[in-house]
Amino acid sequence: MAEVGRSIPRADAGEKVTGAAAYVDDIQMPGMWHGAIVRSDIPRGRVISIELDPAFDWNRVAVAGAEDIPGKNCVAMIREDLPLIVEKEIRHAGEALLLVAAPTRELARAAVRAVRVESEALRPVLTIDEAKAAKTKIFAKDNVIHRCDIKKGDVEAALRRAEIVVEGSYETGPQEHIYIETQGMIAEWKEGGALSVVGSLQCPYYVSHALSVLMGVPEERISVRQSVVGGAFGGKEDYPSILAGYCAVLSRKCGHPVKIVYDRDEDIRVTTKRHPSRVTHRTGMKRDGTLVAMDISFELDAGAYVTLTPVVLSRGAIHCAGPYRCPNVRVRARAFATNTPPNGAFRGFGAPQAFFPLEVHMDRVAEAARLSPLQFRRKNCLKKGDTTATGQKLTESVAALRVLEEAAKRSKFDKRAKESARPCGNIKRGIGMALFMHGAGFTGSGEAKLKGKASLRLEQEGRIAILTACTEMGQGAHTVLRQIAADQLGVDADIVTLPTPDTAYVPDSGPTVASRTTMIMGVVLGKCAARIKEELFRFAAKEFGTKRDKLSFSGRYLVDGRKRIAEAGELIKAYVFKKGVHVVTDEYEMPPGLRWDDKTYRGDAYPTYSWGCDVAEVEVDMDTLEVRVRKMWLAQDMGRAINPVLAAGQIEGGTLQAHGWATMERVAMDAGLVKSDRLQTYIIPTAIDAPEMETIIIEEPYSLGPMGAKGLGELPMDGGAPAIANAIYSATGLRMCSLPITPEKLYEEWKKKEGE
Amino acid sequence: MSFEYHKPPTLGEAMGLLVMYKGKFAALAGGTDLIVQRRTAARELSGVVDLSSIEELRGIALMPQAVEIGTMETHAAIAANDAVRKHLPALAEACLTIGGAQIQNRGTIGGNVMNASPAGDTLPVLLAHGAEFLIKNLEGERWVPADKFFTGYRKTAVEEGELLARIRIPKSDSKERAAYYKIGQRSAQAISKVSMCVRARIRHGGIEWIKIALGSVGPVPVRASGTEALLKGQVLSEGLLGRARESLADEIAPIDDMRSTAQYRKFAAGGLIVRFLRSVRKTSSNHP
Amino acid sequence: MSSIIKKIFVNNTERIVDAEPQMRLLDVLRARLGLTGTKEGCGEGECGACSVLLNDAAVDSCLVLWGQLADGDRLVTVEGLGSAAHLSPLQECFVNKGGVQCGFCTPGMLIAAQALLIKNPSPTRNEISQAIAGNLCRCTGYAKIVDAIEECAARRKGKKR
Q1: Cα dist from A577 to A193, A569, A581, A644, whole Å
Q2: Which of B33, B38, B97, B102 has the highest number of chain C CBs within 10 A, making it the mutation to test binding with C?
Q3: I need a labelling partner for B171 at 20 to 30 A (CA). Which of A285, A523, A533, B286 fits?
Q4: What's the whole-number mean pLDDT along residues A380-395?
Q5: Residues A454, A467: contact at Cβ < 8 Å?
């Protein structure tokens, strides 16, 4: 029986429900010390002096500064601009000034408190507006960290000719991941100068590369592995390299393994957030509602360093015009430097910041054309054969219309729309929708450059191991890959194992990001499976004296045509016994015929897209303007649901994160410092806040995806917020253009409207 | 300096310790506020006096006119108590909005009152019901009424070395209507932005009397006496709802903070009184 | 201050435990007793990841000081709900219904669910949501966690007949 398409239980669920799963803070090592960080409390400035209080016994602890970094004082990511420890200029509050390690956590923290830092404050740049004005320059001449421009047709001319033009401006703030397990890492130096790191991370090879540059040690002597990861959502894509750097430097200094696990408040204050955004739309259309021009300005606040911003900006820009057919498109995208903690990856990676404005704006545009939200989208959504904003012709696996119609049908959208805003006592109901898509894999030539690798290895115990650097962080990757490989091999899933990703023995698969794992790894595993089957069957033919051509696997067995010859496990054991461990490694190749130009930003931005349509029904208490999202219908296409329960889990979890971003999550900043640094002040949804969710899995297969699968991890984040915003408009007539949509903001908008 | 932990079996010993270590020791009830404050270094403490062994501070007693609750009773126990559910339904409701189940199982009414946060969930209920607080010290004891108990931002009539032992809450009138409302940043586990306890006796479509107490709109819980006077004796008309709303918004002086704005709090408080009046109007039209 | 010895039941086994009175119960469990199944997510009673049963009631162990416990108190942690060889029906339902993703909230969720089912064997979905309102999850959206608890209650009910 095929494994793909079945909701097999995840292999790690057993250890998670018994408390046996080892997260980084559960790991103890003999002689382990604890690290702590002395941080800047101003957003921009220079360190004048760092004094160690003589009353504290500094012999009990180890202290490390920039001078203790043997390699380059930088945490290498896209650029090498982020110092591990500040040497010249403080660029954001929370930057590390000095590192401390001690035998206990309490002592390390006491040591931090015994450090007195004197610094000279410089005028900081704290907002996109201040960065744009460039009165103070903190990055290049114009504070622009990255820019990217997309041009299709002639948008200015088209806007001049357009019969209707609608403008709108939209704004979103930072969002914090609030993985329930905070960031943590342990570093240990071994004999021969080898460095071993374990921690809560998404990308082991990112960390090993960063450590190699930092410590001046070749990557072959560094092993980085994941512990069980308690949630990540992008927040553990690049930041762990910084944390690993602290641990490695301290461990080298004190001669003990060093663990750092952040308390929640420190985690919220200093780690990466979703980029705040400011987006304006100028949309032109014919009187009948056909889109003719989309002119979009897309601005992000990058924070103090480059980190992943160019890629976030890129993906955001490409998704700005969304799932619509439009002959004239211009996207001007800019990311600005500010003296705030650097922003980074968060599920969606620029796309949610593109879709909130787009989908709210499209409702506005629809209204101007006297079309319902559904009619407008039906009329203008991309279909097979259409070209996108970057000029990509969509040749297959386009599910925009399908997800739209399915979500509309299940939610009885038209009927509910008619009934909306009719007050039932003091409660008004409203219904809203959002149509969206998400490109799978790295943008443009990204995957070609990465050449993500995976291996299959025959194991002594008679199983086949998948060797991948792609991590399990709760999303179910390790289960899904086993199902895919099992079907590619023809065996039962429990013959396939997936050992903990450790750079010591897995190849560089590329990072666990960009909704790429299932699709990219699945394709590579297919190539490995074909080759390893070939090797095994050749061996079997000799062993059993049969012809090679009718051999295959069927579940637990090796079969010749229909006849069972041996147990698959026994065959593998025999192979390893006689010939030794056998590993087949392969790498991803871009599908032929895809073209992308990094300079003009034109061409096939992604091999394929996953599509989604969310419908949200809200109830607004008009006495208090409290909003309750009662139910959401989520029609989402991932090509093929490898494991339907896990797929639904991604859809539901991502949707609730979008709901939180839309209605309650707000990073309160004051003069460059994060003030909402506790779970009491940074609010995420509880079980009571969660709407009823009806998950509708749509499968529009992609011929070059494993069993038709595309990406799924981030898609659910893209549509929830605008669907809710549009539902609130439907209920109240209040058009909310900035997130979060709180009752306070609704009240201000309502007052303004009453005043008119 | 090492931290001292004391768990005396009697009230007298507890007070003795608090007197001796004035300002340095804190009284520990359930711990759900104190332990958080100690962690965020909001409070510098040399030690605690754990009150959980003192029998005298426990018990929920149904008296002829009132329900008396020992200050060490947990929110969960109070919400589940038959006498409270029957005679003080608004208190039971308020207790169920504090944190989640885990907090309700440890947090105490005494702790909630003594913490005296402007957002304390039981405070408006106690104020609206005219509760009385029994304060004990080494010399004796005294009862303080609710409207004199909360003396300022996070301050109560309980002085150093004294302990709050019991809370006496007059039973609801069997014919009264009461409600507790809380608006937070989310539906559970939230610090209130505005909270309200309102009680009223409705007769023949009119308000015989009404008591309105609010939390989170000032440094201490407040009675909206102006709005109460406005509504007393009035017929429940649509116009009255609008006037009540305006009066309440004018009467309170909330602030802007991380959770909400003064403007919204005024608006929402008005919304809550309208919600209450509308609900009693609907059902009173069915009953005389 | 010197430590206090208490005789308590941990997962049905009597233990004699010695710890400083101001030590958090969470740390006593994780560091002194080696029961690392109970997690710290926030340290201030907001996330519920540290939930344990104390005399059948769910509490945040990060907000309980060792000194507050009394001799004879009964603690149940996630380790006491079942083992790898014998998962409890509740644990099985979490596994089978997709109620586990990253797993970090799972021990606390199981404890909150267990506390609910002890008191209320046939909860409605709304009562389930209320019972886990003090347990934050960032991965699942809660839907499949509620499904799992509902399924467990239904199974137990089915067994009784």
Answers
A1: 34, 12, 8, 38
A2: B102
A3: B286
A4: 98
A5: yes
Using CA atoms, how far residue A405 sits from A363, A375, A381, A695, in Å, is 17, 10, 11, 14
Displacement of CA B137 from its chain's centroid (Å): 23
Mutation target to probe the A interface, by most A beta carbons within 10 A, among C100, C106, C152 is C100
Cβ burial A415-433 (10 Å sphere, 16+ → b, else e): ebbeebbeeeeeebbbbbb
DSSP C73-140: -EEE-GGGT--SSS--HHHHHHHHTT--SS-SSHHHHHHHHHHHHHH-SS--HHHHHHHTTTS--SSS
Residue A6 near chain C (CB below 8 Å):
no
Mean pLDDT, residues B14-29 taken together: 94
In Å, how far are A63, A336, A731, B285 from C119, measured between CA atoms?
53, 55, 39, 38
A260-271, pLDDT tens digit by residue?
999 999 999 999
A 261-280 residues with CB < 8 A to C:
263-264
**pLDDT tens readout for residues B46-95:** 899 999 999 999 999 999 999 999 999 999 999 999 999 999 999 999 99
Q: Could you tell me the two tokens for B33?
A: 């506020």
- B141: enclosing H helix or E strand: strand B141-145
Pairwise CA distance, residues B5 & B8, whole Å? 10
Q: What is the DSSP letter of B162?
A: -
Within its chain, how far is the Cα of A304 from the centroid? 20
The answer to whether residue A264 neighbours chain B at the CB level (below 8 Å) is no
Give, as one character, the DSSP assignment of residue A726: H
Phi and psi, residue A170, nearest 5°: -140, 155
What is the C-alpha to C-alpha distance for residues C39 and A25, in angstroms, rounded to an integer?
9
User: What is the distance in angstroms between the Cα of B196 and the nearest Cα belonging to chain C?
Assistant: 21
Statement: residue B219 has pLDDT above 60: yes
For CA atoms A333, A337, A340, A343, give the dihedral sign. positive
Residues of C in contact with B100 (CB under 8 A): 48, 132-135
> Would you state the pLDDT for residue A519?
97
Q: Is A683–B278 a contact, with Cβ atoms under 8 angstroms apart?
A: no
CA A13 to chain centre: 23
CA distances to A162, A332, A539 from A157, rounded to whole Å, are: 9, 17, 68
Does B43 have pLDDT greater than 70? no
Residues of A in contact with B189 (CB under 8 A): 686
Measured CB to CB, residues of chain B less than 8 Å from chain A are 40, 100, 183, 185-191, 258, 260-261, 263-264, 267-268, 270-272, 274-275, 278
Tens digits of residue pLDDT in A444-484? 989 999 999 999 999 999 999 999 999 999 999 999 999 99
Q: Which of A718, A390, A711 is nearest to A382 (CA)?
A: A390
Alpha-carbon gap, residue C75 to A652, rounded angstroms:
33
Lookup result for tokens 């270094």: B41
Nearest residue, CB atoms, A686 vs list C97, C102, C136: C136
Distances (CA, A) of A727 to A103, A145, A400, A662, A674: 54, 36, 20, 12, 31
| Model confidence band, residue B286 (pLDDT cutoffs 50, 70, 90) | low
| Residue A304: Cβ within 10 Å count | 29
What whole-number distance in Å separates Cα of residue B33 and Cα of residue B103? Answer: 10
Give the pair of three-digit tokens for residue A395. 């040749």
Instruction: Nearest by CB to C134, from B3, B50, B101: name it.
Output: B101
Report yes or no: A10 at the C interface, CB cutoff 8 Å: yes
- Inter-residue contact A335 to A144 (CB < 8 Å): yes
H-helix or E-strand spanning residue B79 = helix B75-80
Which tokens is A309 given? 């911003």
Per-residue HEC secondary structure of A197-240 comes to: EEECCCCHHHHHHHHHHHHCCCHHHEEEEECECCCCCCCCCCHH
